[in-house]
């Protein structure tokens, strides 16, 4: 029998590690579904498995096996006194900076289910999400506001990682009127208004999203310098803005829908106004092996929206899309996070 080389053995081992990595993700999702990060943070010290099981209404032995599985990945510590949360695990608590908890809850639900239908999407090009749930993602959220709230929270927590570089690279004048198109909870808009204190803002989104945003912002006491308008950005937008912001909106839509959104923006924009697009920008010649994030996010979009729907785009694709919709792209800034900011003006 031929002697197996180290490479011959290593490749099957490596591919199995990739296959079984789904269990890591599922374990983290379960960790969050059971609210274990918050329970362990509240206790604040090593806690016996019996007490944790009692507080989370779980099976003692099964819970122990879950926590032991998470230990090698740095989410929990185990001592003779019990289990405790690490700094990495604490990033899954509900009040952590840029908390990953809402993302875990989404992936544990509809988003993850859409991923699991990827083979059908690859065969047909159809949205796995729509096939399984009978409606598009945003139509579904209009019928399930509690899931929309988690989605917006997930978006906000991701934005917390990006907001400093976005604010540093957008140059606005005091007194601007910012129209946040499809702005969800208004998280980025509020940070912009905190920086440009003489400016005002309008948050524009679908009715359910607008209502959730209103309730949330009222609780935070952030009123007086913004208004919330519910509507459909395929039909109309407020027409009194000086800056029209599209933050992580266009990647949710196919080219034709993006052109329709941009056309609505152009119809609503005064001549002196500016379009600001913030989105992930992938490189045309980017090696997926060197940086797989863009390619993986593109598969995420494919499973949610299908081949005719959302996707990640290159700088050239964004430029072409925006300029074909009646704008002049004046500047593009590429950011360390992988995002880009495109600044454009309506053609006269």
TrEMBL record:
Q: Name one Pfam family in it.
A: Methyltransf_2
InterPro entries attached to this UniProt entry: COMT-like (IPR016461), COMT_C (IPR001077), COMT_dimerisation (IPR012967), SAM-dependent_MTases_sf (IPR029063), WH-like_DNA-bd_sf (IPR036388), WH_DNA-bd_sf (IPR036390)
The active site of this protein is located at 251
Q: Which GO terms describe its molecular function?
A: O-methyltransferase activity; protein dimerization activity
Q: Which UniProt keywords apply?
A: Methyltransferase, S-adenosyl-L-methionine, Transferase
Residue ranges of the O-methyltransferase dimerisation domain? 18-93
Annotated O-methyltransferase C-terminal domain residues: 115-327
CDD domains cross-referenced by the UniProt entry: AdoMet_MTases (cd02440)
Q: Name one GO biological process term.
A: methylation
Spell out the PROSITE patterns in the cross-references: SAM_OMT_II (PS51683)
PANTHER family, alphabetically?
A: O-METHYLTRANSFERASE CICE, PUTATIVE (AFU_ORTHOLOGUE AFUA_4G14580)-RELATED
Report the protein name in the record.
Uncharacterized protein
**What is the native source organism of this protein?**
Pseudomonas orientalis
């Amino acid at each position: 029998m031929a002697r197996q080389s180290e490479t011959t053995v290593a490749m099957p081992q490596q591919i199995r590690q990739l296959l079984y990595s789904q269990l890591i993700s599922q374990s983290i999702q379960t960790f969050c579904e059971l609210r274990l990060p918050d329970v362990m943070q509240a206790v604040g010290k090593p806690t016996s498995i019996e007490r944790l099981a009692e507080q989370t209404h779980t099976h003692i032995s099964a819970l122990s096996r879950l926590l032991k599985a998470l230990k090698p990945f740095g989410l929990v510590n185990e001592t003779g006194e019990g289990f405790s949360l690490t700094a990495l695990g604490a990033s899954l608590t509900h009040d952590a900076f840029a908390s990953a908890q809402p993302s875990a809850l989404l992936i544990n639900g509809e988003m993850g289910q859409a991923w699991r239908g990827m083979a059908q999407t690859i065969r047909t090009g159809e949205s796995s999400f729509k096939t399984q749930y009978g409606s598009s993602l945003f139509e579904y959220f209009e019928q399930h506001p509690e899931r929309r709230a988690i989605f917006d929270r997930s978006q906000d927590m991701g934005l917390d990682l990006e907001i400093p570089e976005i604010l540093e690279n957008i140059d606005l004048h005091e007194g601007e009127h910012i129209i946040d198109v499809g702005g969800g909870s208004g998280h980025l808009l509020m940070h912009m208004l905190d920086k440009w204190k003489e400016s005002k803002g309008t948050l524009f989104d679908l009715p359910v999203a607008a209502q959730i945003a209103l309730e949330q912002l009222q609780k935070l006491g952030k009123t007086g310098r913004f208004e919330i308008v519910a509507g459909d950005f395929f039909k109309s937008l407020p027409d009194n803005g000086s800056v029209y912001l599209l933050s992580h909106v266009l990647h949710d839509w196919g080219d034709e829908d993006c052109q329709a959104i941009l056309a609505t923006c152009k119809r609503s924009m005064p001549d002196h106004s500016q379009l600001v697009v913030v989105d992930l920008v992938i490189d045309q010649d980017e090696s997926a092996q060197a940086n797989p994030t863009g390619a993986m996010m593109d598969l995420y979009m494919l499973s949610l929206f299908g081949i005719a729907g959302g996707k990640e785009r290159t700088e050239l694709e964004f430029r072409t899309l925006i300029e074909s919709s009646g704008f002049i792209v004046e500047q593009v800034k590429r950011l360390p996070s992988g995002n880009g900011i495109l600044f454009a003006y309506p053609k006269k």
